Amino acid sequence: MKKDFWLERWEREETGFHQNEINSYLRQFWQELDQQGEVFVPLCGKSLDMLWLREQGYSVLGVELSAIAVQSFFRENGYSPHQRTCDAFDHSEADRIRILCGDFFDLSPDDVSCVRMVYDRASMVALPTEMREKYVRHLLGILPDGAQILLITFEYPQGEMSGPPFSVSVAEVENLYREHAKIRHLARQDVLAQNPRFAARGVSQLHENIFLLTVGQ
After folding, report:
1. 170: which residues sit within 8 A by CB, 6+ positions away?
2. Which of 31, 64, 162, 198 sits most deeply, having the most CB atoms within 10 A of its CB?
3. How many domains does the chain have?
């Protein structure tokens, strides 16, 4: 899956993955994280969840490939962000929300040095199998030890639907993270009835899994 795939989705306004309300699992499980500091939202799009996190008192750092998504986030929420270009990223910032427009894989440890928490609702499930391993390896390579990740994944019979979003099993999360992080499986929810677009595409089972990962434990 190449960068152009996502850039074209935003250009064509094919953004069914965007949620128009705050994620319920974020509200329910964020209290499980026990740190203060900056929250990192990889592949953030124009997620309203960043507003909720800021309202809880956190500074938010997002990274997003599409300039259309970044511009839409600030415009639709009434912000005129301060903008600058530094190294591989265009920076846009307003009201303690900063979004770096560029490639996630160009991030360095310096870019996320203040991060203590990560919210991953749309990153891991957006990537095919071969890229998920690369994604986790890079994420763990730049995060400070002790950082915590709230991870939300979809799980369904992958053969019934081509992603994205892709199916990410509990076993895969454990395999990718267990050598580098402490893993808590917080919940598993049957959500097929709440997601008719999956059923319409032939999916017979659909679950969401919520994890709390603590890096370097």
Report:
1. 155, 185, 188, 209
2. 64
3. 1
